[in-house]
Design brief:
Strand 6 (103-110) and strand 7 (115-120) form a beta hairpin. It is built from three helices and seven strands. The chain has a single domain, classed as Mago nashi protein (2-Layer Sandwich), CATH 3.30.1560. By secondary structure, the chain is of the alpha+beta class.
Length: 150
């Protein structure tokens, strides 16, 4: 008879923790803070654009397939938060690059106060390593999320 308070307490703790899922957004109700990244150009001129939210939600738009965003398998929320911490640490003076080439990469950071757009790929231009490394990490996380879905 004395065990039921422990079971009740355990059940309440479980229910409380299981309801702590991060907020889910729709494309019509996005938060102010977003990371947009991708690549494009080349022979076909195709552009792949990805939109990441800090809760790990991920969206994709492929220029030649559709103008609509597709909802993708989300990243783990901790990975989303980690990418946002990294992009916030980048010196804003190294943001605002406009050096596209035939094939180009882009990394945009949007928040309530500002929008930083970075595009690079010109053969004679070397983008700051903090941008190229973050872009590569974002692309790797996207690839892993898509592999785990299959």
């Amino acid at each position: 008879m004395k065990k039921w308070p422990a079971y009740l307490l355990g059940t309440l703790v479980y229910l409380g923790l299981s309801s702590c899922n991060p907020k889910s957004y729709s494309l019509s109700n996005l938060p102010a803070e977003q990371i947009i990244f991708g690549q494009g150009g080349g022979f076909t001129g195709a552009v792949n654009t990805y939109l990441l939210l800090d809760n790990g939600q991920l969206f994709q738009k492929k220029s030649f397939q559709s103008e609509d965003w597709e909802v993708l398998e989300p990243l783990r929320p901790r990975h989303g938060r980690k990418m946002f911490r990294k992009i916030r640490k980048i010196d804003q003076d190294s943001m605002g690059i406009k050096e596209p080439g035939n094939r180009y990469f882009f990394l945009h950071y949007i928040n309530a106060e500002s929008r930083f757009e970075n595009t690079w790929g010109k053969p004679d231009y070397v983008a700051p390593s903090e941008l190229t490394e973050l872009h590569a990490q974002l692309q790797e996380l996207f690839n892993k999320a898509q592999e785990s879905k299959q």
